[in-house]
Please model this.
Amino acid sequence: MKKFLLSMAVLAVGASAMAAETSYTIEFKTRADNNGANFTTETALADVASSGSDYLSAIASTDLCANGMYGLKVGQNKKNGSIELTLSDKGKVTPTKVELKVSANKNPAGLEFQFNGTAYALESSNKNDTYATIEVNGYTAPISSLTFARANATSNTTEGFIYVKSVTVYYEADGQDPEISFPQLEYTAHLGQAFESPKATTVSDGAVTYSSSNEEAATVNAETGELTLVAVGTTTITATVAETSTYFSSYASYELTVVDPNALNPVWSWDKNTTNSMDPFTSELVGDYTFNPWSYDNRYGLKGSAYKGAANETVAIAASPVIDLSNHMDLVLNFRQAANQYKDNGELIEVSEFPNYAIIVARVAGAEEWTEVAKATAPASFSWNFYDNEEIDLSAYNNKKIQFGFKYISTATMAGTWEIDNIVVSGKVGTGVAQITVDENVAPVYYNMQGVRVANPEKGLYIEVRGNKSRKVIF
Model:
């Protein structure tokens, strides 16, 4: 018998399910929009508990709620909350051990935690975001259900409640891993355009069937995996391989996003929740300045400030990574920002002067020099309140690989704070114009907005191609 650990990340789509020495876990995640408040059982299951696994799923029961900071909350208001976990008997797997990551709140030393009829004690150190790992061993047959609850609650102030972070189930398998997978986890298809449907691969000789979670976006042929794009939207395409005498059943999925090529669609985005650092942005000092004003703040996003005890004179760019826009047109940049503390010798400058110290720049990949494309939109007044910057036209960089950046400027007497979040580059799918090249020494060639060459352009908007460069022009 081959021993391995099954795990499933909440709401994540895997390229292959079930592989030797891989863990399958239900993880009860926190909610960024919850702000620490409790919410209902139904919302908790829909938003923070995993579901959809063939082997492991979550069902809630009495007094189950979730907390925006610590996970799934069991028990409150003098009641014994409980959660039920259902394990499917697939015939070739036998659970042998369960690991629980749990923590406690309000007098944790007085808590008794019950799991599947057995009581476990929590130490006082296992409070809030410090999780204890509890192992439950000795299972010799498939489990139909697992339950756990806070025991003997008498007072919401003297008896605490439990936070459940995750549940992991270990199995032994009599069969072999079918190793089913797709080439990628995510795909984007353009409505009305040809798209090569991804096919699942597996070492098993079991029959593979396909399904779509949202047939309003795309349907899939159950036998061949061929897609039919229906409308703009997102769907999860799942391939399931049937159990055989040698291999157990398993599945793999990918997320398909169907977009309208004639509409502006996000091409690249970043916000403060994307990472826990400035990545993938880098700070690039301009000229001989040495003070780096750029940093990451998990509350506000990119943060530019050259004040450290006093104002420091500097010029520095928070530079994006290289973004491949070689098949996109009508590009625009949007972001939200806040600006404050723009004081010159202690006196706030006029808000109309702010754009002189906050500039958006861009360059073609590989170029050294940056080009100013716009100044930041001035706020109504300096404050820590975020507001939308005016949309920035990046069409000069249609069909190119580019970088853009936020250029922060300070002086020896003034160093304000510029905060940037919710950055999105959007564009339309290209029409093939980017692949057309013309010798630099010949006359420009013109195309209409549908990508059709026009010999004698008349009044209107056209794309001018000269060599490997293109731009929009108006006649």
About this structure: The chain has one helix and 38 strands. Helices lie at 41-48. The two ends are 75 Å apart (CA to CA).
